[in-house]
Amino acid sequence: GIGDLGVIKVMLLGESGVGKTALAQIFGGLEDNLPHVLGDSEEAYEKKILVDGEEAALVVYDVWEQTDSCSWMQENCLQMGNVYLIIFSVTDRRSFSKVTELLLQLRTSRPNEDLPIILVGNKSDLVRSREISLEEGRGVAVMLNCKYVETSAALHHNTRELFEGVVRQIRLRRSRR
Ligand code: GDP
User: Fold this and answer.
1) Cellular component per GO (predicted)?
2) 153 lines ligand 1 (CB under 6 A)
3) Closest residue (by CA) to atom 20 of ligand 1?
4) 75-89 average pLDDT score
């Protein structure tokens, strides 16, 4: 179950429309099932994945937008995760501008913690409408001291690598303790 010990809680943060639900559904393996039957109400996807020959259990939470204008829900979201994916769309500079604010909010909520945070530039398939270059994304990630990954939920590009990266970040920190 979702409350199990050792399950890695992955929280998806980011503006509306950047692809949080698309990425969560790819993780859950639901993206090509019948969405009208399943409904759009799914908010947590639990799955075990094999990374470097070892199994890991993840729950991916797609709840961030529901916390809009509800500060205790937002704070709860910022407290409960083991890993955070801060997602923006490479075609939307406004969503990119939010990244720094989100990261500061997160680090303020969890001071003195070495939280694994991955900055995710999604929609890399939309080459013609790209507004944020790979270099600019990477630059901000370096400045904010987090990992950077570009994905395309539409093409499933780098999506498996993204969630494998989540597990590796957690293992790296556990092995350091
Ligand atoms: P959310 O509001 O952050 O959950 O974003 P959604 O997952 O609902 O995606 C918003 C829109 O962007 C939808 O129409 C998706 O189909 C589309 N979308 C999401 N990811 C990608 C992507 O990687 N490439 C393209 N071309 N469209 C995407």
Assistant:
1) plasma membrane
2) yes
3) 19
4) 96
